[in-house]
Queue: 2 jobs
Job 1
Amino acid sequence: VRSEQTMMISLVSELTDQAVKLIQLLEKEKNFAERDSLTGLPNRLALEQRASLLLGAQPKLIIMFNIHRLTYINEQYGRDIGDMVIAIVAERLGKLFPGEGQLFKVAGDEFLAVLDDATLDNGALEYVALDHAALEDSHLEQDAFDHITLNRGAYEGSAQGMSGAKEETKKSLRSKRLEAIHQALHVPVELPDRVLSVQVDIGVALYPEHGADLFDLWRKANLALLKARMHHKRYQLFYPGVETSFLRDLSLKSSLRIAVQHGDFTLVFQPIYDLASERIVAAEVLLRWDEAAPDVLIPLAEELGLMAEIDHFVLTQANAISKMLPVPLAVNLSPTTVAHKKDAGHILSLADPQRITLEVTEHAVTNAAAVKNLRRLQKAGFKIALDDFGKGYSHLALLPELPLTALKLDRFFVQHIHEPRYRIILESIVAIAKHEAYRLELVAEGIEDRASLNFLRSLNIDRVQGYALSRPLPLEDLQKKLHRGDNSFYNDRKLHG
Ligand code: C2E
Ligand code: CA
Ligand code: CA
């Protein structure tokens, strides 16, 4: 009996050991199935299993992230680099969302984060109120800016009362957080032999405002993300009309294709004045389309690969029109046109370098082929101005390599010229441009008032352009201005104001 008992005990204990091992193995396997093998982050399965636990009582942000143009990176640099980019983005996201159950990798290059919406105390309110001046100065999205401004009114004791103020403050804090998240994710990825600029598109849905079901919120955040991507925005909050807006975007795209086929655009001309003689010495050609403003039209056309055709259209028209004018016309060239030898070569046959000058931005000259194309154009006699100079990341080191005749100072600096910390930057640019190694003509654009004009006089600026002198005009109006000879800018009422 005793030996039978011993046998039973040892059998049971052996079975228990086995059971424990089996359970451990199953656990491990389950854990394994719920983790992404590349990044170690909880995956879609994990999210699905925990969906019901994630939302709860507190308001939340459901944030979708998608790596911009990962397919392109995979194709261009290979899958290993693509994987490396995913891993780096995952690591950065992991630092932003360190909490358990906050961050999931839901597909190849898609991440979802669940974040507590800012709960506010008075400290947070103060922080925003103090910081609004700095925010106004920065290039904030209008949406975020409105929230800040509204909040300031409320904070300074408007009739709205504290709860309205809190709501607005919450929105502005939310914008700031999303802004900061976007910035944290937009850092160049350093590879052994090159630097990749990786961007992450962001779409956001709010719980409980936009729904109570995680999967529904996930879908809505995704829609918002697509919208952000389409409009080149840093992030986009879901809104109820977002679905129908895709139809509008779609129809805008097909209208644009048709407009390009038919040349359904008009051109306007903004006079450029000589600062000393106050006479019109040139005019910049600007494209107009009935259906959208240039800041929508140009990115859309770029996305659709239509910029070369548009530039072709503008150049042909401008070249013909310039024959009727006593001054040359400045035409903007898109980076695509500058980058392609064929398109750049086309310009030579389309335009007369005596009548047409070219404006390019620094985005157009980031590779050797583009610089080579520009050199060819310069050899053919075209004058080339570097547009929006000082905006974005200026490639100062590239300046000695570029075949330029002029710099157009970005209007951002002109509009802050009364502030010493901005003026010194302008003064330094002037010093560079006027150095004997460069001898570049300087054009200041975006002049909106007389005070700025007077400041510019004290600098060594050659030419000026801006609403205060003249808005972009239809051809007839430009011709009248030129014909009447009243091109001195003191005829403009706005300057006397
Ligand atoms: P840009 O080349 O910097 O053109 C100057 C822009 O500043 C124009 O905007 C003009 O209307 C605006 N502007 C002029 N004076 C003032 C001022 O005093 N204050 C302010 N705030 N703005 C002023 P627009 O016409 O909306 O064009 C926007 C951008 O679209 C242009 O910037 C250019 O990059 C692009 N673009 C416009 N037409 C063409 C075109 O025919 N071809 C190409 N490739 N790009 C174009
Ligand atoms: Ca321009
Ligand atoms: Ca410009």
Note: The first strand starts at residue 60 and ends at 67.
Job 2
Amino acid sequence: MKAILARAFGGPEVLTLEDVPDPSAGQGQVRVRIHAVGVNPYDTYMRAGGYAITPDLPYTPGADAAGVIDQVGDGVAGWGAGDRVYISGTATGKAHGAYAAIAVCEAAQVHRLPARISFAQGAGLFVPYVTAWRALFGRANARAGDTVLVHGASGGVGIAATQFAVAAGLTVIGTAGTDEGLAVVTRQGARHAFNHRSAGYLDQITSATGGRGPDVILEMLANVNLDHDLTIVAPGGRIVVIGNRGRVEIDARKIMGKDCAVYGMALWGIPPDEVRRAHQAISAGLDSGTLNPVVGKEMPLADAAKAHVAVMAPGAHGKIVLIP
Ligand code: NAP
């Protein structure tokens, strides 16, 4: 089969398409013919080296994909050949192994993909939607009636968070950096969409909340925004740091003055029971129609290196997906 291999850590050019032997499903495992692979920012951090999870070389990146089961190992109940699924990691590693034509997964790593959701959409379900659910409900304790600022709402996690929040009865303010991104944010049901590259957009957010500020802020770029978030958050508010790409100076007095909380979260550290609940919430939202992953760009699997450049560039408007 074809698979992307990284034989060294480094720039996008270390990703090459190679022929490798087809894997087989072992005890308790299923084999999935992959139709689409989701590209996440952490795939690039891992490829560069020094990420929290460092695989042995060579390795195949990726944890997000969707496809069809074509082989079921001994001891697996409830799954059969022909079932449409999205995956949450592979048997190779929970954070890698999906940039390939075939993946072997533990039975617990496959999840039903309804017929109305395309494989490309399904490739953007695990990392973005589990992260968004955990941030909103597991960390920020978001409740109907709250106003949530999704600071970076045009990418994978932001779109997922907006859809979950709208369905739960929250008022969403989303930001993006381009007109195309702002249009995507509005289409997900955000009440307001502001451009995080425009001067004065933080004042617009404050005005949109009647001067009170958002009750919850989901932060995709804390090294740029955390101190500003502490300025605009509502009294008693909750800020969740989801994304961060450098150091930031904050005035800790603002945390005192706002009587607010700053939470962190990391997908790989979510307690298993919470992960299970997140997948249940995804399943319910896919069935009810409140969750609809947005595909921004499809590229051939061979273009994985280009996809790694694109996912780190400004102008997100949905998921970047690789097609084997
Ligand atoms: P993505 O699809 O690349 O989207 C990135 C988002 O950040 C876009 O909406 C982008 O908007 C926005 N952004 C860019 N500059 C910004 C700024 N100055 N202020 C606010 N937002 C800004 O990435 P993703 O998959 O949604 O992930 C978002 C971040 O969360 C990444 O850093 C990722 O590594 C991290 N993450 C963390 C976890 C975790 O477990 N903690 C899990 C998943 C993802 P424009 O492109 O329009 O500017």
Note: Residues 9 and 48 are 5 Å apart (CA to CA).
